[in-house]
Design goal:
The protein is of the alpha/beta class. The protein has a single domain, classed as Rossmann fold. The protein is 34% helix and 22% strand. Pfam families: NAD_binding_10.
Length: 212
């Protein structure tokens, strides 16, 4: 079983990923901001490392404390000052991996459909609503493409709070016309498959539901 460090694992999709990892028997550590509640993670028996992804040294410290062989980041959203973590936070995580003394087996960066080369395919209304976040996520994706360690970008479709259905699929195309919404639990389960599969290493892949 792997030792896995998760950035952005305290709630929503990240917390579902942590739960799925634990169910598979993996050892999990999560970097958590000092002001964030740790109750849910503590109840799961997760190792908690306090730190702020806006600070590179905190990300490096989390790597050195956890000593993971797999790293996952679901970082997204804004802090209390209105700064987006999607770009700089994920870039800090990537730089921390680069500076880590030991080799990692895999880094999985979870962004969103519409990021990267898919952005130009979006209609203008979606760009107005999600453009800021997608632009920041794209910065992180582009930085990751310059790295030599094994990585996968997973772009999730529109997220729901539904139970896992198992009805999801992967796509490496830019076509978004058949992409249905997907539950956070299904995304979490899809990530488990990427821990050992080499199908998408060094590539960006979309995961979405099968119903429009």
């Amino acid at each position: 079983m792997a030792k896995i460090l998760v950035f952005g694992g305290s709630k929503n999709l990240g917390l579902h990923i942590v739960e799925s990892l634990l169910n598979e028997g993996h050892s999990v550590a999560v970097m958590l901001r000092s002001e964030s509640s740790s109750d849910a993670l503590s109840n799961l028996g997760v190792e908690i490392i306090r730190g702020d992804a806006f600070i590179l040294d905190d990300c490096i410290n989390a790597m050195n404390v956890a000593k993971p062989n797999i790293v996952i980041s679901t970082l997204g959203g804004k802090n209390s000052q209105g700064q987006r973590i999607d770009g700089i936070g994920n870039i800090n995580v990537i730089q921390a991996i680069e500076k880590y003394a030991l080799e990692i087996e895999r880094f999985i960066l979870i962004t969103s459909m519409g990021a990267g080369n898919q952005f130009s395919k979006l209609n203008e209304n979606i760009k107005k609503v999600l453009g800021e976040a997608l632009i920041e996520k794209t910065k992180a994706e582009e930085f990751l493409y310059t790295q030599n360690f094994p990585w996968i970008i997973v772009r999730s479709g529109g997220l729901t709070h539904h139970e896992a259905s198992g009805m999801y699929k992967f796509s490496t195309t830019e076509d978004l016309t058949t992409a249905g919404c997907i539950s956070r639990k299904d995304v979490a389960n899809s990530i488990i498959n990427q821990l050992t599969s080499d199908d998408f290493v060094g590539r960006a892949v979309s995961v979405f539901g099968t119903e429009i």
